[in-house]
Design goal:
There is one protein chain. With 128 residues, the chain is mostly helical. It contains four helices and no strands.
């Protein structure tokens, strides 16, 4: 009889341990499923935001819009034929500075005058 009660007690304890383990695994799985759904919602929200940003980007980069903005804010003019020059022509027009020489801000007007450029235009300095 004592043996039978010890065996019943052991089975009861085993049943309780298995029931607790099953309960624990079930609720861990439910918690993981909730986290997975939350992550899926976040991913879908990011995809939606990405599509909105791509639509905004394509709207902002529309060529007609950019052309209007450039005309309004930039002082651009078509390139004239006299502005196009070969690299060999630059030697004749600009003073060539060596890499060891320092660029003197006071010498800039002299370089502009020697190059035959107008004052206030951007100068190009070639260094070796």
């Amino acid at each position: 009889m004592i043996r039978f009660m010890n065996l019943n007690t052991a089975f009861l304890a085993l049943t309780l341990v298995v029931a607790y383990g099953t309960y624990h695994v079930k609720y861990d799985a439910q918690r993981a499923a909730k986290e997975l759904k939350a992550i899926d919602r976040d991913i879908e929200a990011e995809h939606t935001r990405e599509r909105v940003l791509q639509a905004d980007w394509s709207l902002l980069n529309e060529p007609t819009r950019l052309q209007k903005l450039a005309a309004r804010h930039l002082a651009l003019a078509p390139v004239e034929a006299k502005q196009i020059a070969a690299v060999t022509d630059l030697k004749e027009r600009l003073q060539v500075l060596t890499a060891s020489s320092e660029v003197d801000p006071a010498a800039e007007p002299r370089i502009v005058t020697q190059a035959g450029l107008q004052s206030g235009t951007r100068t190009i300095v070639i260094r070796r």
